[in-house]
Structure formats: structure tokens, C-alpha cells
Design brief:
Layout (H helix, E strand, L loop, with lengths): L2 H11 L4 H12 L18 E10 L14 E15 L3 E28 L3 E8 L7 E9 L2 E16 L1 E13 L5 E14 L11 E14 L4 E13 L10 E13 L1
Antiparallel strand pairs: 1-2, 1-11, 2-3, 3-4, 3-6, 3-7, 5-6, 7-8, 8-9, 9-10, 10-11
């Protein structure tokens, strides 16, 4: 065996546990035996992975497809991953997520109307905004059929949190440099989200489709346990199944704890 052919093998040896390292070195010492493929333990790549995560976005804007602005998103969930293929370059995995907690927040304007003519009374109601909430106040007066209509108005801003749940059964994850403890990765999912009331505006739907694309780093604390930090582009849309479909684009920051074998 030439020195050049032994370089990849020596690199893989450095990642093995002490006992396996001794066994591999003993095998290399016997020139009559063929060189074996790298052992599975040389990779930081679990066959089955279970994860718990939290994700948050403090704002939304028109990143790619969504138009609804100033929406917040909070998600808490779990995931399952299954290794499909691994070599020294990439660890390709199936990844599915379930989110029992998916909270979405919309800007709300509280409208206060104080009628002064032709009668005196007050009314209040809330409206969801497709864009950021802008407070305002003033006086309005008009005359119709000889009758003067006049009122003072005040618009104040608040938020409405909507409870929901989501599942993303279609997903893939690609980790690079799987022989190293610190691995960059790409990830993507498709699924749906159901909320207790329409989001992000009143005439939109409670059932929405979702997809996300993200990238980050995964740090293996041991061959079976790791922590991930990532950024995702996350989109919510009812796909024109409701009267209005402004869509929501969020930039999610997510932290994940994973374990398995």
C-alpha cells in the first residue's frame, strides 16, 4: 500500500475510539489483509435521531412570497430523523417535525369612536392589519341629507396571539463534514398549520400550508448527542383557499437538542 493511499485512512483513524484505533492499526500492520472501509463509528451521524426544539421570529416582511408585515411566530416542537446515506462528505437524512405549540401574533388596532352628532354614544371594535399598526386620532364631520354626523376617533395598537398546531412530515437535512464534531447543514420542510382563528387577517383562513428552508451548524457533544443552531426562511399561506391570502414570511431562529443512535 502506497503512502498516498494511507492518508484518508489515517484521517479516519483519528476519529475512532481508543479500542477501535488499536484494532485498525493492527489490521494495517498486516499487509496480507485488504484495507477495510471506514467504520460507522468514525462518523458523527446517528441512524435514528430524536429532537426537541424552540423557534422564534419577532417580525415578518416581504422576504420572498408573503406580504403580511409585523407578524411574530413562536414554535415549540419535536422532530424525528432517519439517516438515508452517509459518506465522508455528506450525511443525508429524512427529517419530520411536529409542533404542538405554534403561536402566531398579529398587529391589532383598537378603534374607539365617540359620536357627538346626531346622537352621543361610544363604540369600540378591533381590526386586524395587513401591515404594521399605526396609532392615530382626530375628528370627522360630514353632512348627509341635512343631518350633521360628527365623531372623534382614536386608533391604538395592540397584538393578538393565536393558538395553533403544525406538522411538517416532508423534510430533508444535509449535514456536511460528518466526521467532524462541528458540521454545517441545510434543512427544509413542507407541511401545514391549523389555528383557532383566521390568520393573518380576518378574511384569511385557519388552515394554512407551510414550508421552510434553513441553514446552520450542528455541534456534536458525543457521537449520540448534539445541539443545533439555525436560521430558517418560514412561509405560511392558505394557497388561495380563502378570500384573502397575504401570506407570512418569517425569519426564524431555532435551537435544537438532538439525541439517538
Amino acid at each position: 500500500m502506497s503512502p498516498k493511499s494511507g492518508v484518508p485512512c489515517l484521517r479516519s483513524i483519528l476519529a475512532l475510539r481508543p479500542l477501535l484505533l488499536l484494532l485498525v492499526l493492527a489490521g494495517l500492520a498486516n499487509a496480507a489483509l485488504p484495507q477495510s472501509a471506514p467504520a460507522a463509528q468514525s462518523f458523527f451521524a446517528r441512524r435514528n435521531t430524536f429532537s426537541f426544539f424552540g423557534a422564534y421570529s419577532n417580525d415578518s416582511s416581504h422576504i420572498l412570497l408573503g406580504d403580511a408585515a409585523n407578524r411574530k411566530l413562536l414554535e415549540i416542537g419535536a422532530a424525528y430523523g432517519r439517516r438515508l446515506f452517509v459518506n465522508r462528505i455528506v450525511n443525508w437524512q429524512y427529517n419530520g417535525e411536529i409542533l404542538p405549540v405554534a403561536l402566531e401574533s398579529d398587529p391589532v388596532i383598537l378603534n374607539t369612536i365617540d359620536w357627538t352628532s346626531p346622537t352621543v354614544y361610544k363604540e369600540q371594535f378591533q381590526t386586524l392589519q395587513s401591515g404594521p399598526c399605526l396609532p392615530a386620532s382626530g375628528t370627522f364631520t360630514t353632512t348627509y341629507n341635512g343631518v350633521v354626523y360628527s365623531y372623534n376617533y382614536t386608533f391604538t395598537c395592540s397584538r393578538r396571539w393565536t393558538i395553533g398546531e403544525a406538522i411538517s412530515p416532508v423534510g430533508m437535512q444535509w449535514n456536511f463534514r460528518p466526521r467532524h464534531k462541528l458540521q454545517p447543514f441545510f434543512i427544509g420542510h413542507g407541511g401545514y398549520m391549523y389555528t383557532t382563528q383566521p390568520i393573518p387577517v380576518t378574511n384569511a383562513g385557519s388552515f394554512n400550508f407551510t414550508f421552510d428552508l434553513g441553514a446552520g451548524i450542528e455541534l456534536y457533544r458525543s457521537p449520540t448527542r448534539s445541539i443545533r443552531a439555525e436560521y430558517r426562511y418560514h412561509h405560511i399561506s392558505n394557497h388561495e383557499t380563502a378570500t384573502e391570502n397575504p401570506g407570512i414570511d418569517n425569519g426564524l431562529l431555532q435551537v435544537t437538542y438532538s439525541f439517538g443512535r
